[in-house]
Amino acid sequence: MAKVEITESLLVEISKKFKQESIEILEHLKSLETSPHKGKIIGTVGALVIKELKYSGFRFYFITDGFKIKCLEEEKLVDLLLRFVRMSDKNHQQETINQIKHILRTVGAGGFE
Fold this sequence. Notes:
Elements (H helix, E strand, L loop, with lengths): L2 E4 L1 H11 L3 H9 L9 E6 L2 E8 L2 E8 H6 L9 E9 L3 H14 L7
Parallel strand pairs: 1-5
Antiparallel strand pairs: 2-3, 3-4, 4-5
């Protein structure tokens, strides 16, 4: 079972934007603990993979270890960390992906709060 982590800044953004629906969205994001292969691969930076998970017109971006997600079976993904870092709507999708890549290249995975 993988571990899903959501950055504090993203939690605040989800709560502000979605109010009551935020609980349902967080459950959707946490569903990756049981099925970590969900989501579409957007890009890679070094060994890290950037993936997106869609929910009603919004995209939620997370980073993970690309080697583990590609090579290991679901039962063996016990130490996999999926860290949600950003969200965007369809109009700001590319801008958000470029920001994530920039942070990963300059600071690394620790650059997200």
